[in-house]
Amino acid sequence: MTLPQAQVDGLSWFWIVVQATLPALVGWLVALPLWLKDQPILGNVAGSMVMFGFAFAMIMREHIQLDRLSSACLDAGRTCFPHPEAFTRFAIYGFIALFQVITLFTLSLSVDERRRRRGYDPQWR
Predict the structure, then answer these.
(1) Residue 56 belongs to what domain range?
(2) In this predicted model, what pLDDT tens digit does every residue of 27-58 receive, in sequence order?
(3) Helix 40-75 × helix 13-36 angle, to 10°
(4) In a domain, 124, yes or no
(5) CA-CA distances (angstroms) from residue 73 to 13, 63, 66?
(6) At a CB cut-off of 8 Å and minimum separation 6, what does 105 contact?
(7) Which among 3, 71, 85, 124 would be 20 to 30 A from 27, CA to CA?
(8) Helix, strand, coil shares of the chain as percentages rounded to 5?
């Protein structure tokens, strides 16, 4: 069995796009009902758990894939080193999740501000 070096070179762009879109949407959908019930902290925690949990799952998926590819290379009698390295691949998923959580907290502030101002007369806003 020959394993092309191209499989360990390059990034998994499909999974990076999934990480960039799906957890943000799901995290926001989880947090929104809690924000609207005057529980912004619980909404932020729940949304953050979704986002960081998904990033952890993507990191584990990438680790397992790299491990399988490295084992296949060793079984074929050669060594393969992934480019970019595993840490860089893992950091991409982690930073995407971090930016998603920062965005979630920023949205939480605007939702909380609108909710708080709703109780005042329009001329006092």
Answers:
(1) 14-113
(2) 999 999 999 898 999 999 999 999 999 999 99
(3) 160
(4) no
(5) 22, 15, 11
(6) 44
(7) 85
(8) 80, 0, 20
Residue 3 is assigned to a structural domain of this protein = no
- Nearest to residue 69, comparing CAs of 4, 18, 15? 4
CA distance 16 to 58: 9
Give this prediction's pTM: 0.83
User: What pLDDT score does 116 carry?
Assistant: 80
**Taking the CB of residue 45, how many other CB atoms lie within 10 A of it?**
14
User: How many folded domains does the chain comprise?
Assistant: 1
CA distances from 111 to 17, 46, 97, 102 (A): 27, 16, 21, 14
Question: Stretch 102-125: mean pLDDT, rounded?
Answer: 83
pLDDT at residue 1, rounded to an integer = 44
Opening angle at CA 99, ends 95 and 102, nearest 5: 140
Q: State both tokens at 85.
A: 């390295």
Is there a domain that residue 120 lies in? no
Report in angstroms the alpha-carbon separations of 29 from 2, 64, 106. 45, 29, 15
pLDDT tens per residue across span 11-25 = 889 999 999 999 999
